Amino acid sequence: MKALDNLRETMRRDKVFDFVAEGHYPLSSFRHTVTTGEIDVSHGTILYVENVNVSFDGFKALNDLNLYIQDGELRCIIGPNGAGKTTMMDVITGKTRPDTGRVYLGQSIDLTRMNETEVAEAGVGRKFQKPTVFPEHTVFQNLELAMKTEKSAWSSLLASLSAEQLDRIDEVMLQIGLKEQYAMSAKLLSHGQKQWLEIGMLLMHDPRVLLVDEPVAGMTHQEMDRTAELLTQLAGKHSVVVVEHDMDFVRSIAKTVTVLHEGSVLAEGSMDDVQNDDRVREVYLGS
Q1: Which of 264, 135, 127, 284 is nearest to 204 (CA)?
Q2: Phi, psi at 52, each rounded to 5°
Q3: Tens digits of per-residue pLDDT, 65-84?
């Protein structure tokens, strides 16, 4: 009991509970309780956003939004401020309920009937723009905390990790390029490394769809190149949706770009297609 009390006190001091309470990491990051069945991607599409409308005090944030993400693809979403990008992610992840419309994961999982925790359990992970790692914990410990497990949070933290769990943490550390920093406190990492660590924490939950909000904001060019490589590598096993303003970065990773404007899809296609679209140049890219 004393060891458990000490662990709880350490986590309080390191503000682990604050991160959960503020919604940066739902409890689903620590335990797996919701069973939704297999994701049906027999039609090739993993995420359906259809005729979605959201209004806030008379302002229409989403206006009959239709968006389809294919299984394993990397899609970039761009658009001016106020275009509806954040609201779109809020709807997909259960933070905001749409006024009308539907959002499905595969053919049968209705995300609009779920809360944020259940959406995460179903297979949708979200990375916010500001990295929200546990600063006083090491890279290894951050990934351990995020591990999906059937056990309660406390018992899993106190139990010895299995060989399979250790292999999974090792695999993710290698994937995000932080294996050499495994024993380093997250507060000592560079901005880019913190972003990669947070992506790694989501990967520990093994999401089928990964929503990534402005991943390269504040990064060095070298960090941007590494982030492009990481997100490209994730596509295939995961469907990756990236919201980003840096057009050079978008061009480096995206085969398909969706442009939002006033809550709807304005244009969609390759980066060359959208850059040469007069409507896109007028409202976002400039002439």
Answers
A1: 127
A2: -85, 130
A3: 999 999 999 999 999 989 99
Angstrom distance (rounded) from CA 109 to CA 111: 6
Spatial CA neighbour of 146 closest among 163, 119, 116, 168: 168
Q: Any alpha helices (H) in the chain, and if so which ranges?
A: 2-13, 16-21, 85-92, 116-122, 139-145, 153-158, 163-175, 191-203, 221-234, 247-253, 271-275, 278-280
Number of Cβ atoms within 10 Å of the Cβ of 95: 16
Contacts of 245 (CB under 8 A, 6+ apart): 78, 214, 217
Asked if residues 147 and 168 have their Cβ atoms less than 8 Å apart, the reply is yes
Cα–Cα distance for residue pair 4/220, rounded to 1 Å: 41
3-state secondary structure of 283: helix
Domains defined along the chain, listed by start:
2-37+74-80+123-285 (3.40.50.300)
Beta bridge partners of 21: none
For residues 240 and 233, what is the distance between their CA atoms, to the nearest angstrom?
10
Contacts of 136 (CB under 8 A, 6+ apart): 13, 14, 185, 186, 187
pTM exceeding 0.85 = no
Task: Identify whether the C-beta of residue 255 lies closer than 8 Å to the C-beta of residue 240.
Answer: no
How do residues 17-31 score in pLDDT, each as one tens digit?
343 333 333 333 333
Q: Would you place residue 91 in the very low, low, confident or very high pLDDT band (cuts 50, 70, 90)?
A: very high
Name the CA radius of gyration of the chain, rounded: 19
- Left, alpha or beta for 58 (phi > 0: left; psi -120 to 50: alpha)? left
Tokens of 26: 């739902």
pLDDT at 264 over 90: yes
Return the structure tokens found at 185: 């406190």
